[in-house]
Amino acid sequence: MHNYPKIKTAIPLDDYRLQVTFVNGVCKVYDCKPLLQNSAFGSLTWGWLFRSVQVDAGGYGVSWNDEIDLSESELWEHGTRWESLPAIATPA
Questions:
Q1: Which residue from 21, 34, 39, 50 could staple onto 9, CB 3.0 to 4.6 Å apart?
Q2: Do the domain assignments include residue 41?
Q3: Pairing relation of β-strands 69-71 and 61-63?
Q4: Whole-angstrom Cα distance, residue 92 to residue 87?
Q5: What total of structural domains would you count in the chain?
Q6: Residues 36, 68: contact at Cβ < 8 Å?
Q7: What percent of the chain stands above pLDDT 90?
Q8: Is residue 90 domain-resident?
């Protein structure tokens, strides 16, 4: 089993992306748009819900409510390192 770094912060960005900073200092951006096709994640299209993302206790993932969450491994494995990204607009 792989030990993934725990999540320190998660910030919602434009276009259904999350900026995730891990405790090891690595910052990644995770694109949630592909998840919206899955009925389990469909309610994230409600902007207020997407923007309510919280880091779970212990940094083991992020969640929006009791039914919608993502693990630290998903965010680590499928996120794109911040340094390799073009400029990203943050919400006002």
A1: 21
A2: yes
A3: antiparallel
A4: 15
A5: 1
A6: no
A7: 85
A8: no
Q: How many helices (H) and strands (E) does the chain have?
A: 2, 7
Q: Which amino acid is at 47?
A: G
Distance (Å, whole) CA 27 – CA 44: 22
What are the pLDDT digits (tens) for 2-17? Answer: 899 999 999 999 999 9
Task: Burial-class residue 20 by CB neighbours within 10 Å (0-12, 13-18, 19+).
Answer: buried
Cα angle 55-58-64, degrees, rounded to a multiple of 5? 25
Its pTM stands at 0.86
Using alpha carbons, select from 37, 32, 40, 36 the residue that is nearest to residue 14: 32
Say whether 88 sits in a helix, a strand or coil: coil
The reply to whether 23 falls in a domain is: yes
Q: The domain containing residue 30 runs over which residues?
A: 7-84
3-state secondary structure of 9: strand
